[in-house]
């Protein structure tokens, strides 16, 4: 069986799957951020429904490794870190623990960026040491080092990585 990593665009019938994966993701991140679980034992993720009601600006994908569910990626058109509404933003990104350190996140991120050409923003908290190491390495590899990294006074404690995808850079004859 092929172990190839691919992104599957999430249709509304994948909402329960994503809702469950988001619980695991938020629980992981609760080691870093102060997130309270609800009285029903769930963290919840209210914005999930917007990924189908606002399809022009929100994109949800299930990450599959072969046929198996390996994680998810949520992306938005427009980033909280920039003013350009055309910028693409990695809103949430998660690989299940059983699939980590096998290149799944790297392959999924490459597929995400290849599939949606443009200028991308990746926001990552300095407190998320694994996430920061991951994004720095994967963005560096994807762009051959042609990316920007900055901090924003409005987002203390966060690093902002930005770059233009290979396809978009080739079209405009430029780069990040
Ligand atoms: C961060 C995350 C997506 C990485 O997924 P992954 O599939 O394990 O990543 P990959 O195997 O593709 O890693 C690619 C490279 O990133 C770096 N990297 C990945 N995880 C790392 C870690 N825990 N510590 C240090 N570097 C890491 C390494 O350079 C790695 O290459 P290597 O394994 O050959 O050394 C995953 O750990 C995760 O879902 N974490 C919880 C949610 C999260 O933090 N998401 C990001 C929010 S900003």
Fold blueprint:
Elements: E1 5-9, H1 15-29, H2 50-53, E2 58-65, E3 68-77, E4 88-95, H3 104-115, E5 119-125, H4 129-143, E6 148-152, E7 155-164, H5 166-172
Parallel strand pairs: 4-5
Antiparallel strand pairs: 1-2, 2-3, 3-4, 5-7, 6-7
The structure holds coenzyme A.
Residues 25, 28, 93-95, 100-106, 124, 128, 130-131, 133-134, 137-138 line the site of coenzyme A.
Can you walk through the features of this model?
It is built from five helices and seven strands. The mean pLDDT is 95. It is of the alpha+beta class and 176 residues long. It is globular and about 50 Å long. The longest helix has 15 residues, at 15-29. The chain has a seven-stranded mixed sheet with strand order 1-2-3-4-5-7-6, sandwiched between helices. It has a single domain, classed as Aminopeptidase, CATH 3.40.630. The termini are far apart. The structure holds coenzyme A (COA). The site of coenzyme A has 20 residues, from helix 1, strand 4, helix 3 and helix 4. Residues 25, 28, 93-95, 100-106, 124, 128, 130-131, 133-134, 137-138 line the site of coenzyme A.
CATH architecture verdict: 3-Layer(aba) Sandwich
> What's the level 1 CATH class?
Alpha Beta
Main β-sheet, in a few words?
7 strands, mixed
pLDDT below 50 for ≥5 consecutive residues: which ranges? none
- The radius of gyration computed from the alpha-carbon positions, rounded to a whole number of angstroms, is 16 Å
Helix content: 25-40%
Terminal CA distance: 38 Å
Number of helices: 5
As for the number of domains, it is 1
Which small-molecule species are bound to the chains here? coenzyme A
Q: Tell me, briefly, the overall form.
A: globular
N-to-C SSE string, H for helix and E for strand: EHHEEEHEHEEH
């Amino acid at each position: 069986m092929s172990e190839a990593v691919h992104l599957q665009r999430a249709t509304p019938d994948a909402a329960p799957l994503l809702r469950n994966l988001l619980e695991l993701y938020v629980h992981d991140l609760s080691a870093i951020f102060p997130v309270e679980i609800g009285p029903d034992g769930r963290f919840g993720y209210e914005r999930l429904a917007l990924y189908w009601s606002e399809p022009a600006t929100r994109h949800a994908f299930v990450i599959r490794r072969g046929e198996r569910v390996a994680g998810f990626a949520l992306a938005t058109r427009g980033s909280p870190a920039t003013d350009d509404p055309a910028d693409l933003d990695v809103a949430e990104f998660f690989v299940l623990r059983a699939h980590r350190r096998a290149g799944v996140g790297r392959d999924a991120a490459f597929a995400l960026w290849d599939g949606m050409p443009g200028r991308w923003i990746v926001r990552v908290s300095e407190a998320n040491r694994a996430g920061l190491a991951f994004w720095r390495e994967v963005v560096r590899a994807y762009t051959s080092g042609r990316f920007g990294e900055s901090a924003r006074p409005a987002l203390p404690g966060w690093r902002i990585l930005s770059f233009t995808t290979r396809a978009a850079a080739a079209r405009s004859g430029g780069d990040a």
